[in-house]
Design goal:
With 157 residues, the protein is an alpha+beta fold. It has a single domain (26-155), classed as Protein Transport Mog1p, Chain A (3-Layer(aba) Sandwich). The protein has helices at 2-21, 81-93, 146-155; strands at residues 26-30, 39-43, 47-52, 56-63, 67-75, 98-105, 108-115, 118-129, 132-138. The longest helix is centred in the first third of the chain and has 20 residues, at 2-21. The N and C termini lie far apart (46 Å).
């Protein structure tokens, strides 16, 4: 009987170890060479695309179908992070596909969208650094699970 319990305990520990290793594929990624003096965590070998739109800079970091972070950098309109998050919340809630807010944090939120009866997830994370504001969200193309979005949200904190 003890052998069975020991085996079950070992199996559960292995499963838990695999779960905790799932996010360990993310490495620090310095975006200074792409025009942003910030770092995030991203999968090794992620593709980075930078578009200078004049008033703002759009940087996307993509790897596979489950990691696609878009960062919009611009001059800060306000240095009150709560005001920027409130504006982001308002914009998201006005979207046709908005379903519900899953979680709110001091620096942003995770939310659910419903498109043709299919669930998709997204987030907003706000960072103010110097005289710049950075808005992080999922890339515009793709379908992301709640777990995908939680990983991406955690990678930009």
């Amino acid at each position: 009987m003890r052998i069975i319990y020991a085996f079950l305990l070992l199996a559960l520990m292995s499963i838990q170890s695999c779960k905790s290793d799932a996010g360990s594929g993310l490495a620090k990624l310095d975006l200074l060479s792409h025009g942003l003096p910030i770092s995030i965590k991203a999968p090794e070998g992620a593709e980075i695309v930078t578009d200078d739109m004049g008033v703002w800079t759009d940087v996307t970091v993509k790897s596979g179908d489950d990691y696609y972070v878009q960062i919009i950098a611009s001059d800060a309109v306000t240095f009150e992070k709560a005001d920027i998050i409130a504006e982001q919340l308002k914009t998201v809630k006005e979207s046709t596909f908005f379903s519900k807010i899953l979680e709110e944090y001091e620096d942003g939120f995770i939310y659910e969208k419903k498109i043709d009866d299919k669930l998709n997830f997204d987030f907003r994370h706000v960072k103010i650094q110097g005289d710049k504001e950075y808005i992080f969200q999922t890339g515009l193309i793709g379908t992301f699970t709640e777990d995908d979005v939680r990983t991406m949200y955690g990678s930009v904190q």
